[in-house]
């Protein structure tokens, strides 16, 4: 891995540390907190412990999904959520073909997109507003799925260029979420 890879990776880690501070006390705070520490832990496991990052990222992807659920729902289903988390963690301890991990990550991020779109639709229905914050968040999640699908299926895209393009876009999105909070007036369009 070359110096450009590490430069972009460390820059990405630094940029994604800021959104949790900006989103503090919003309903997506824990999502951004998990997102902010996921890359740090993945890099730590990869570089210092020489452990493949995919199993670690499976666990973080599950945590991202749980972080978007309402607290009352988590409270009422805590046994199921914790049990599923333990099963996923155990699966990650077993050496499995990489495509399984990538498929699981893509599945969790697809569920995250559905959850974000659900939150978007509920906001439209309840408050009669379009909050572009959720649309940007859903689009960001979609790019993550595309990134992992490039590993799963050979998309005939040059891997290094694809990495830099998607990571550059993710840096811009990280700056966006550092600038704007959920329900920021500049991102809300009233329907009535």
Overview of the structural elements:
The relative contact order is 0.13. The chain has 192 residues and is mostly helical. The model has no long low-confidence stretch (mean pLDDT 86). The protein is built from nine helices and two strands. It has helices at 3-15, 19-22, 29-47, 53-67, 71-76, 78-93, 98-127, 132-152, 159-179; strands at 129-131, 188-190. A two-stranded antiparallel ribbon has the order 1-2. α4 packs antiparallel against α6 (78-93) and α7 runs antiparallel to α8. The chain has one domain.
Percent helix among the residues? over 70%
DSSP E strands, number: 2
The helix tally amounts to: 9
Cα-atom radius of gyration: 17 Å
- The dominant shape is globular
Kindly report how far apart the N and C termini lie: 53 Å
Low-confidence stretches: none
Secondary-structure element sequence? HHHHHHHEHHE
- Helix-strand category: mainly alpha
What number of structural domains do the residues give? Answer: 1
Mean residue pLDDT: 86
Main β-sheet, in a few words? 2 strands, antiparallel
